[in-house]
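Task: sequence design from structure.
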């Protein structure tokens, strides 16, 4: 089973930024623990701070992977293009967020991705990614 995690802007700074919200573990450290815990999954990840690169990656893998775990970060709330890309592909997408976006600023309460996603997981820290991964394995 091929699953990719696609991360949006500023998630390359996990472990360094706003540790009270995002924790002190880097994404690479967390990703290695996922790979070790789920060796039966061909797991990869991609991160970009650029909206178009995220859309290109979604389109690239959206017809050949079994699952996409997408944390579009701030683009979740602003990018109609990423939302449209999710709707245009065949691969199921689970939208994830590390924080509970509904407990944050009001502009974070709307997602352009949710309508095209299989499901949404938020507020469980980095464990949100693992919960999304488990949803593909069941």
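Answer:
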């Amino acid at each position: 089973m091929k699953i990719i995690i696609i991360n949006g802007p500023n998630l390359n700074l996990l472990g360094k930024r706003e540790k009270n919200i995002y924790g002190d573990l880097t994404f690479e450290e967390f990703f290695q623990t996922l790979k070790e815990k789920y060796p039966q999954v061909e797991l990869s990840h991609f991160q970009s701070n650029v909206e178009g690169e995220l859309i290109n990656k979604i389109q690239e893998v959206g017809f050949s992977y079994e699952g996409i775990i997408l944390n579009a970060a701030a683009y979740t709330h602003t990018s109609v293009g990423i939302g449209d890309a999710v709707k245009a592909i065949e691969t199921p997408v689970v939208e994830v967020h590390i924080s509970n976006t509904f407990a944050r600023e009001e502009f974070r309460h709307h997602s352009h991705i949710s309508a095209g996603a299989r499901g949404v997981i938020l507020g469980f820290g980095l464990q949100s990614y693992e919960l999304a991964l488990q949803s593909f394995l069941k």
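Residues 27-37 form the longest helix (11 residues).
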